[in-house]
Amino acid sequence: MTEPLRVVIADDQPLLRAGFRMILNADGIDVVAEATDGTEAVDAVERTRPDVVLMDIRMPELDGLEATRRILTGATDEPRVIMLTTFDLDHYVYAALTAGASGFLLKDVTPEHLVAAVRMVRAGDALLAPAITRRLVERFAHRDPDPPTSHRDLATLTRREIEVLQLLARGLSNAELAGHLRLSEATVKSHVARILAKLGLRDRVQAVVLAYTTGLVNPATPT
């Protein structure tokens, strides 16, 4: 029997934390800790070693973006982080992605979507569609004077892996990649997994960000 998925909820609104906890517990997901600010969130993650963190962006003392950076910098067995906000603002999404988050949710998310999102990022998938990530990177990446992925060495990738990464950054799903490259989906998944491993990335969203911030894909080029 597999162990239940473990989650930390960080938000300064008690009612939201209680509601999310009830939703997740009802689906067999274990909420191992709650935090009211970013400092408490960092401490809770160090203490409980969760699989996923639901992290509010706007919190007192230490905001969710900085807390996410601290959690995901130099840690072993890093959790996946999903950012929470009441504001659907692109610059928050981009900041969350560059901080290392695996996804982004509005706080009025439905119970079904919340549960699906937690399980999705735990499985290693990205919560944002590559096409949405592409739009964000096209709009904001040029404003970042020191993009966090600029040091990655793309030379470690094979020619085929470079091709897969370029197409992935254009928003193609695994099925679409398989059709375009005339490969099986299983082979595509293997290529994507190797790309992430070689470049030290957590998920497909980070791969899309890397492709644009390193210039591997040109935003001006039609998709």
UniProtKB/TrEMBL annotation:
Superkingdom: Bacteria
GO molecular function: DNA binding
BP GO terms, sorted: phosphorelay signal transduction system; regulation of DNA-templated transcription
Pfam families per UniProt: GerE, Response_reg
Signal peptide: none
Domain Response regulatory: 6-122
Record-linked PROSITE patterns: HTH_LUXR_2, RESPONSE_REGULATORY
UniProtKB keywords: DNA-binding, Phosphoprotein, Transcription, Transcription regulation
Modified residues (4-aspartylphosphate): 56
Record-annotated HTH luxR-type domain positions: 150-215
InterPro entries associated with the record: CheY-like_superfamily, NreC/VraR/RcsB-like_REC, Sig_transdc_resp-reg_receiver, Tscrpt_reg_LuxR_C, WalR-like
Protein name from the UniProt record: Two component transcriptional regulator, LuxR family
Organism name: Asanoa ishikariensis
Lineage: Bacteria, Bacillati, Actinomycetota, Actinomycetes, Micromonosporales
